Amino acid sequence: MKNYTPRSEGRKFIIPSFFFIIALCILAFINEVRFDSLLSFGRCALSNVPMNNNNGSLETPLLSSSSDDEIRILIGILTLPDQYPRRHFLRMIYGTQVVPDGVKVDVKFVFCNLTKEDQKVLVALEIMRFDDIIILNCNENMNKGKTHTYFSSLPELFNETDAPNPPYHYVMKADDDTYIRLESLVASLRPLPREDLYYGYVIPCPSMDPFVHYMSGMGYLVSWDIAVWLKDSEIPKKHLEGPEDKVFGDWIREGRRGKNRFNAKWSMYNFPEPPTRCTHELWPDTIAVHLLKNQEKWIRTLNYFNVTSNLKPSKLYHIP
């Protein structure tokens, strides 16, 4: 595996011990899990150990949170107020997924201020029924600061005194054409630090080095402390416009944040057709599939992962 050395003298890698690797092998055998699948989730922890596949890198000890099974994750899906059918569809996608005990995953739909009379009625009804919408105080946009408004608003939105501290260990921004497998996402986060973490699919597509550029807008995640930093820092406010994922990476680099990075490639990827350097075939070791732009691509993806396998038999319906 190609290893990457961070550029700052202050950054250091922790080389996992031989016994840690052996323990992972035993765990994979006991659970009848392919070892390469296990490595795909632990790729950062094993970044200095020779192996056959290319992986990303992370640079601080990963056992700091491994004894704590409780994980709280917020996924903010950035969308538009008028995308009612898409939101209802995604509620089915995420509402039927199961996460392990002790794990909390909240999926919220995020957009800017309402501008139409019908939105004020229909969105209000959605909130009354589902309570899963965040309306930011901004004018609707994609590349003019909406992402910053989302992340920087979170510390104020979730500052209840009786809430856990932090309210979420990790916060994620995702596109509404991305399918995220929640259990796989949780499994990939378990060994990772809960501070100064920047996680996602590194751009450019051929790269496996998470310290070179930035994480793709399909879905990237940071630890809660970075959201707090985004609220307080002047760095993002000076540079809000441009491709939102690239601009986010610029903030992280200029602010010297994200010393801990996890490249989730190729567990995150673009839908395989049309083939590009960013695509990958659908495969079991998947965290997220991006560019599901039409129903056909969604159905192919959902069929591959057999998402209806838990459908209970009933006399009320017959689905062959």
Automatic annotation (TrEMBL):
Coiled-coil intervals: none
UniProt KW keywords: Glycosyltransferase, Golgi apparatus, Manganese, Membrane, Signal-anchor, Transferase, Transmembrane, Transmembrane helix
Compartment(s): Golgi apparatus membrane
Pathway: Protein modification; protein glycosylation
EC top class, as a word: transferase
InterPro entries xrefs: Glyco_trans_31 (IPR002659)
Cofactor(s) needed by this chain: Mn(2+)
Bilayer disposition of the protein: Single-pass type II membrane protein
Transmembrane segments: 12-30
EC number of the protein: 2.4.1.-
Entry similarity comment: Belongs to the glycosyltransferase 31 family.
The protein's name in its UniProt record: Hexosyltransferase
Organism in which the protein naturally occurs: Camelina sativa
Gene coding for it: LOC104734308
